[in-house]
Each structure stands twice: as C-alpha cells, then as structure tokens.
Amino acid sequence: MNITLSCRQLSCGLAVALALAPGLSQAKDPVVFASYGGVWADTIKEVCGVPFEKETGIPVHMVATDNSIAQIRIQQMTKNVQWDIAPTEGDAVIIATENNWLEPLDWSYIDPEGKISEAGRMPTAIGAVAYSVAIAYRTDKVPEGKTFSGWKDFWDVKGFPGPRSLRNTPVENLEFALIADGVAPAEVYDVLATKEGMDRAFKKMDEIKEHITVWWSSGQQPPQMLATGNVYYATTFNGRVAPLQAQGVPVDISWNGAAIELSNYSIPKHAKNKEGALQFIKYCWNDPQRLAQIARKLPYSSFNDEMYQYLDDEYAKKLPTHPQNVDKQFNYNAEFWAKHRKQIQARWDRWRLQ
C-alpha cells in the first residue's frame, strides 16, 4: 500500500513538474489588443485574432478604448502596462515616441523583404491601414433635387436641414471648417498655422455649433445614429459606412475635403507579451491575402501593395487612397497637431463651454 501510494505521488509530482517546466506548458500568455472597438475590432478578431490563436496557441484578448494616448500615458506612469498592442494614430505616435512610451519595432522580423511602403514603417509603429474621416449622410434626407457634395453643404443648414454630428475634438474639425469657408484642402495647414487662420476656423465653427446635436467620442456612435436616423449628417471613419449600406441603411459618403489618416499600432513600453505582439503584427498586417480580406470587410487601404492582387478592381475604388478618391482629400498633418494640440485643445474646451 505504501509503495503504491508513493508511486501515485511520484506520478502526480512528475505531471506537475512537466506542466510547469519552461516550454512545456500548454498555456501561453495572451496578446492584449486595444482598439476603438466596433466593426473594426470585430474584423480584426475574425481575420487575424481567431486564426492567429489557432495557429500559434497564443490567445488574443480584445479590449476597447476611446482615448488611447491617455491610457498609454497612465499605464506608463503607473508602471502597470495592460496592453500589448495599442492604437497610436495621428499625433499619438509622435507624442508617445517622444516620451519613450513605446517599444521600437523589429522591422527585420516584421517585414524582412521590405514589402511595406515607407509610410507604414515607423520606428515605433506600423501603419495598419489608411482610412478617411469623412461625411456620411442619409441619402433619403437630402432634399429632393439637390446633391450633397461636402463641407459647404454640411454648413448649409437651410439648404440641407437636419440634425448633425461632429467629433468632440478640434482635430480635423478646424480643417473641415476652413474647407467649408473656401480654403482648398491642400492649403488647410498653411492657413491653420497662422493666427488669422486659427481665428477664421473657430469663427466658422461658431456658425455650425448650435446645429450639432451630438458631439461624438466613440467611433461606434456615428453609424448608430445614422442607422436610427437620429442624425442625417455626421463625420465618421469611412470603413463604418459600408456595413450600414450592407444592412440596407440609405447612407453614402462624401470624399470631398475628407482627411486621410493612418491607423497605427504600437507595442507599449514594458508590454507583458512583446514577443507575441510582434508575431501578431506581422501575421495581421504584412500578409497580402489577409490584408485583402480586411479590405473586403472594411474599405481601408493597407501599405503592402500586393494586397491589390487579391481585390476586385471595382471594389478597390471604395478605398480612400484609390486614385479617384485621394485627390479630393487632404493628408492629416500629425506633426502639426503634436506641436499645437495642447493650446488648441484648451481653446476648444473653452469654446465648447461658451
């Protein structure tokens, strides 16, 4: 009896030891992926997250945020890093890099053949996709006989009546205001960089302020409001429009005066699973077939041009960087906002309270 018991104890102990031995454990640390949620997060989970976990055994945990740079800062200041991959679009990547809040990316691993264009290769971030912040509008609410064509019409509340929505930020809105006031999209930052131009933009915002029924903060809000008819005209990410159209919601998008931006992703400094995050970044955003699959679900461009080999030519016209769309827009200037955001934000906050 004693001998049998000892053998059982030995077997149990050996099993525990094997389970805990480095490299033999079946459980792998997850990659915690932060995004702005909604259809984008669902798409990344389906196209990248689920197959990545099946192929590597590394779970991907999706979490949502509506203010990535603030959360990155808090996590770095408290030394409590919760994310392995974080969105760093716009001026966020510049601010976070300057403050040493991001890990440098190993491009020799992510893209050893150099297939990703220079625009998508940053020292601390990968350009996952290019997207546009544009006007989405209910086609059934446009007055009969009229064509909605852009920012001048957005500001024309008499000619195009109905509830409107803008994002609660000076970023992009001041550029849009100048375009509505007659500034060419290619010249918005030249004008905005002057005191007179800044005053002009805020003065134009005064005209539309009382007609904005919702100042949105989450990317999910505009499509929800358009679907229910709570707003007729709203800024939104271009990729949010196609799913509404697929559901039969009468909406369309205006590319005129839209802002082309990069959706960057980075690994926060001291991320708990840096290695897994690097694997995921390469797996998701440097595989042309997977990028094409993302683009078919959401009309966002990528930075590996081999993607276009797997896309229908007609569908490619829905992408923001397609030749028929790109010249109507302006390129978001992340450097401008990184340099001036603090003082402009303070003025914006005062203006919103007036």
Automatic annotation (TrEMBL):
Entries under Pfam families matching the protein: SBP_bac_8
CDD domains listed in its UniProt record: PBP2_polyamine_RpCGA009
Gene behind the chain: potF_1
Source organism of the structure: Bordetella trematum
Signal peptide (UniProt feature, chain positions): 1-27
Entry keyword annotation includes Acyltransferase: no
Protein name: Extracellular substrate-binding protein
InterPro entries reported in the protein's UniProt record: SBP
Keyword Signal: yes
Keywords in alphabetical order: Signal
